[in-house]
Structures are given as C-alpha cells and as structure tokens.
Amino acid sequence: LTPIPGVMNTLAKDPHFGLASDDASGRARAIEFMQRLQESVATVNRHVGRQAIRAVEIHSAPTLGKPGVTSSIDSFAESLTQLRAWDWQGAQLVVEHCDAYKVGQVPAKGFLTLEAEMAAITQSSGATPAGVLVNWGRSAIETRSGAGPEDHLKQASARGLLKGLIFSGATLDSPLYGNWSDSHAPFETLGSQLSSARAEGCVRIADAAKLPVFGFKMQALPKSLTVAERLAFLEQNASRCLQLF
Known about the structure:
Layout: H1 4-13, H2 24-48, E1 55-58, H3 73-84, E2 92-97, H4 114-123, E3 130-135, H5 136-143, H6 148-158, E4 162-167, H7 196-206, E5 213-216, H8 227-243
Parallel strand pairs: 1-2, 2-3, 3-4, 4-5
C-alpha cells in the first residue's frame, strides 16, 4: 500500500508537510495522514477476512529546495518511532527511496538521501519492522544513470535494510515518457534506461525472491490506449518481471 499520490497532492498545497519535516506542524499533519492510512489497512483486512497488506510504503517528504523548507534524519526518525509503535496488523513499514534533492537538478520528489533514510530507520525504534524499498526509476532519476539503482540496492543490502524492489523505468528524450521524468516507463520503450541486463543485475544484488515486496509500477501510454491494450501492456510487463527469476 503506497500513499505517494496523496503525499504529492498534499505537498502541492502544503510544502512543509512530511514525516521528515523540521516544521513541527507539518510533521504532525503527516502523522495524521499516516493514521488514516493505518485505518485503511485495518479496513481492507477486515473486508477480506485476512491479512491482505504485507507492506506499507512511507516517504521522507517534504520536497527540499523550497524557501524555508527543511527536513532531517532526527525528524524522520522521530516519525518512524511513532509509526512503528502502531498496530499495522502484520504489515512492515518500508521507506520507498525517491529521488533525493540535489543542488542544480530539478527534482521529481526531492526527498532525503538514501543514506539519511537508512540512518533514520536505524535511529528509530518500535515493534513494527522497518526497512528500505528501492524504486528503480526514482533511483535512476536521482543519479541520472541506469547504474544508480544497483548502487542503491548494494547500499541498502549491505546495511541489512533492503525490503523491496520495484521496477519502474526512466527514459532519455522519450516522446511519451520524457527526459529523466518520474513517468513510470516500461521495459521496452524508446529511450528506456531499464534494460534486461540491468534488471537481472538488480534482481541478483537484491536476492529479490526473498524480499517482502517485489513488483513493477509502469504507466500505459499513450492515454488513447483501449482497456484491452492496457491489460496487454500490464501482462507483458508482469511477464518480464517473472522472467527475471
């Protein structure tokens, strides 16, 4: 379960919002937001009569680089400790690493660095397990390199914090998916940096079959595609993911 659409929609109106925010009221609003997410986990599990959600993604917002907006390891760790004390009905908490803010580079998300996120996880405490999820596309966008996701996987794995791998591509000069844009490009598209060799390398580094979370997040474009064409798109990319094992 990921709240990233709600996080980004809120940030568009409330730049201090976020679990890593140094603004006390902005962090409090993010905690309240996550409380609603926790209630959703209970609602879904109750509806289906079993534990349906194995992991909940969290994010180290706010977006940095805006006037007066700051975040820190300490603020994020404090939020994580609060969240880890709640009952998530067996679901783990995984920090989805999004592209970190870099001076001189327009961010897609612009959150904390992977190192800072891992430091916050280590600094936090609580009964609920917490770790890191690497989103291939967002790591590539941050590093401006198809090799960047492998580096992030190695760092998280070395710390014993890797809990998930999501394949979402990134492109260079694609008429559909843009230039280093967080547009969830598929495996096979013009300008794609997500090759089969790179994907296979990431699966090996992550030992992905043992991860609590493994999957893909890819957008079917152009928007004029029919429902049947969109389903075929999803089936094709799901098959590519399964072939990686």
